[in-house]
TrEMBL record:
Catalytic activity from the UniProt record: isopentenyl diphosphate + 2 oxidized [2Fe-2S]-[ferredoxin] + H2O = (2E)-4-hydroxy-3-methylbut-2-enyl diphosphate + 2 reduced [2Fe-2S]-[ferredoxin] + 2 H(+); dimethylallyl diphosphate + 2 oxidized [2Fe-2S]-[ferredoxin] + H2O = (2E)-4-hydroxy-3-methylbut-2-enyl diphosphate + 2 reduced [2Fe-2S]-[ferredoxin] + 2 H(+)
EC numbers: 1.17.7.4
Source organism of this protein record: Pseudolysinimonas kribbensis
Protein name according to UniProt: 4-hydroxy-3-methylbut-2-enyl diphosphate reductase
Cofactor(s) this protein requires: [4Fe-4S] cluster
Lineage: Bacteria, Bacillati, Actinomycetota, Actinomycetes, Micrococcales
Keywords per UniProt: 4Fe-4S, Iron, Iron-sulfur, Isoprene biosynthesis, Metal-binding, Oxidoreductase
């Protein structure tokens, strides 16, 4: 990914989108079709985080700073940057007293303290489902347990969750890590996880953990969030019938990358992740009758529609939606942004957004 500099942080996202090259409609044996997975795209946590930055710009004016990418999507970050958001890597890059939004992936208490020490006006757009995992970590650590956090090293969410109880938490990257773990007390362990993992791989990691540590305790409820699970269930239904699966999502979007992996595991002949429709290559369509399409939880639907337009150029005009769940969850805006005094309390909390 090429990066540009906005004067503060090299943002790996914005780019000039080239004129769309048309795909050719080459003949294949049988009728061409698209299986469009649903649910796909925006989840409640991403919607809330993006609206939080928009509302912060509206209420406080430019500039509004955002620590890290608000959500892991190059298009969304680019659009917000054009509207006046400035993305930074750490709080010490933000001028004292400025407004700073924490991203949907969450932050550690050390980051919150760092922002307070600089007198920053913090707006916490951490997804409530990530906050739930943070609370579990704090509670388990307070009970004197050692926490095995299943997640990917270096991911911002993992850094934020590890930071809740750094002395009591060990990161488990994959099933292969289990044999290498050194724990204080095998009888006093609990596992939690990143919210955007593969459900199947996580269950395999837990199975191996329990084999090694039979007294391992479970968290009270799933940490892999509803949106990640729903998108994986839908792509599992599509994949066995797909010669090709296209997942719209960015390279650093954990749940988008997992969708590609799950599609391949569940029988898709090939699968590719793309940010934009113009990345579809003619060669991917050779001999392909059925294309499965989905998108990660941080992807606006407009990008999926552009993919469908590209595929229509190539003869894939017959679109069948494969829906495995309905979603209507919406989260309230961060409290710092519930300024609008019109409407009911519920409407104010949703910031004028309309339930699907
Ligand atoms: S993917 Fe899940 S945890 Fe992440 S923002 Fe969306 S709902 Fe929240």
């Amino acid at each position: 990914m090429s990066g540009i500099t906005n004067g503060v942080l090299p943002i790996a996202s914005p780019r000039v989108r080239p004129a769309r090259g048309r795909l050719r409609d080459e003949p294949v044996a049988g009728a061409k079709r698209v299986l469009l997975a649903a649910p796909r795209g925006y989840c409640a946590g991403v919607d809330r985080a993006v609206v939080a930055v928009e509302k912060a710009l509206e209420h406080f004016g430019e500039p509004v700073y955002v620590r890290k990418q608000i959500v892991h999507n190059v298009h969304v970050v680019s659009e917000l940057e054009q509207r006046g958001a400035i993305f930074v890597d750490e709080v010490d890059e933000v001028p004292e007293g400025a407004h700073l939004v924490f991203s949907a992936h969450g932050v550690s208490p050390a980051v919150v303290a760092g922002a307070a020490a600089r007198g920053l006006q913090a707006i916490d757009a951490t997804c409530p489902l990530v906050t739930k995992v943070h609370r579990e970590a704090t509670r388990f650590a307070g009970q004197g347990r050692q926490i095995l956090l299943i997640g990917h090293a270096g991911h911002e969410e993992v850094e934020g969750t590890m930071g809740q109880a750094p002395e009591r938490t060990i990161l488990v990257n994959s099933p292969a890590d289990v044999d290498l773990l050194e724990v204080d007390d095998p009888e006093n362990l609990v596992w939690i996880s990143q919210t955007t993992l593969s459900v199947d791989e996580t269950m395999e990691t837990v199975r191996r953990l329990r084999e090694r540590f039979p007294h391992l305790q479970d968290p009270p409820s799933d940490d892999i969030c509803y949106a990640t699970q729903n998108r994986q269930v839908a792509i599992k239904k599509v994949a066995p019938d797909a010669d090709l699966v296209i997942v719209v999502g960015s390279a650093n979007s954990s749940n988008s990358v997992r969708l590609v992996e799950v599609a391949l595991e569940r029988g898709a002949r090939t699968a590719h992740r793309i940010d934009y429709a113009d990345e579809i290559q003619q060669a991917w369509l050779d001999g392909v009758r059925t294309v499965g399409v989905s998108s990660g939880a941080s992807v606006p639907e407009v990008l999926v529609q552009e993919v469908l337009e590209q595929l229509a150029d190539a003869g894939y005009r017959d679109i069948e939606e494969v829906r495995t769940a309905e979603e209507d969850l919406m989260f309230s805006l961060p409290k710092e942004l519930r300024h609008d005094t019109s409407g009911t309390a519920d409407e104010r909390a949703l910031g004028g957004r309309v339930r699907a």
